[in-house]
Design a protein that fits this description.
With 97 residues, this protein is of the alpha+beta class. It has a domain of 60 residues. Helix content is 33%, strand content 21%. The protein is built from 2 helices and 5 strands. A 3-stranded antiparallel β-sheet has the order 1-2-3. Strands 4-5 form a two-stranded antiparallel sheet. Strand 1 and strand 2 form a beta hairpin. It is extended. The termini are far apart. The mean pLDDT is 91.
Length: 97
Amino acid sequence: MARGSKSKEGDTRVAANGYHYTRGTTKWRLTHHIIVEQGLGRSLRANERVYFRDGDRTNLAPNNLDIRVVKPKTKAAKRAEIEAKIDDLKDRLDDLV
């Protein structure tokens, strides 16, 4: 696909982070999600994540893609995570000042 040209359904691109994206009818989607959904015959659920077994984001072979179910975080866990991020950002800001 040429730079500046309008993308069509089925076009693919690779982002700077190494993930592959495929253009759908309305938006860009992660290619490895599409591959897994086709194999499952259904969409991914909100608590399902797709992982690369060998850690290589360029290896889109179906046998390299693994689905893991994640547990939802409690409110206390979410709060602790946010507070830790705030503390880290404050420390980084202090280093700049």
